Amino acid sequence: MRWEGQRVTEQGDSTFAEPSLLPLAGLVRTVRTPDFAGITFHEVAAKSVLNKVPPTSSMPFSWTINPFRGCSHACVYCFARKTHSYLNLDTGLDFDAQLVVKINAAEVLARELARPSWNRDHVALGTNTDPYQRAEGRYRLMPGIISALAESGTPFSILTKGTLLARDIPLLAAASHSVSVGVGISLALMDPVLAESIEPGTPAPKARLALISRLRDAGLPCGVMAMPILPWLTDGDESLDQLFGALAAAGATGVSAGPLYLRPGSREWFMQWLSAHHPRLVSRYEGLYSSGSYASREYRDWLSGRIRVFRRKHGLTAGAGFFRNLTPTELPAPATPGTPGTPGYKGTRAPSDARTPAPPPVQATLF
């Protein structure tokens, strides 16, 4: 393994390299820099960046790209935490601070897209870790990735919490003239204090709302993934009304919303956070998720009903609106009121003057 003297030689760069303890294929160097205190970058030369989605998957796309492994957004609930255990790293702090960077992602992707066998299938970015986390400001991988996809005629979508995406709006707008480009913002809560606690490395909710508006002003569609809705924390009528109202005001083209998903790897980390910040809810969550990674069917059905009420109230389309073209079906009937003892229940009813809006035009939807 070559380490180039364990040192970076760029002028004016206080970055330094150090020996790595990780047996990573293609490892070039391990780097820490004062600009990213507490974070270690493991730079690798990837052999491939296009990931084939297993045919058994329910995902509505066949290919993904993840320029990074691990994510400094540090969302406590992130379902991708389990993937860090494959590197012999823990799914808690290591996932937040030990980041693998595919430094040659754009070049490798261009070669893969140039193969005669490539069918220009849709490629999804941001499905595992966020491509616009802070590290992208240092490595600038996305401009090359976007250009490679657009120049090859490959449609693509991006899902992110990162406002750094604003840097690439001109590039995305230009790409949209030659290929289908979908953009989605992940935003599921409006409380800045809760956001700082549960997703401490992400831009504030107001900053993400502003990004939605900037994307729409640039003529790009922008759907929202309002996941996860947190039982007893963000599932009340007041919280949902505030969230969907803010998304509509920002110009979101559609919203997909759903409850917290607690797979192994993220479940342990989330429950540790819950015990520290909301200990009274621990036993409730243990009961709600007693059957596995999903909340109980009763809760999911109840939450779906409340989501329909507020999505309809604010004139938002079901579906995040940034993956594939489908003709929308008629919107569901108004939800029935919640029942006592159900998370988020406040004894409220759907607005009596709620009306079914006219069917929206054909549009894209992720799920």
From TrEMBL:
SMART domains: Elp3. It holds the Pfam family Radical_SAM. Residues 327-348 have a biased composition (Low complexity). Residues 357-367 have a biased composition (Pro residues). Residues 57-306 form the Radical SAM core domain. Keywords: Iron, Iron-sulfur, Metal-binding. Residues 327-367 are annotated as: Disordered. The keyword Iron applies. GO terms for molecular function: catalytic activity; iron-sulfur cluster binding; metal ion binding. InterPro entries: Elp3/MiaA/NifB-like_rSAM (IPR006638), MJ0683-like (IPR040086), rSAM (IPR007197), rSAM_sf (IPR058240). The keyword rRNA-binding does not apply. This is Radical SAM protein.
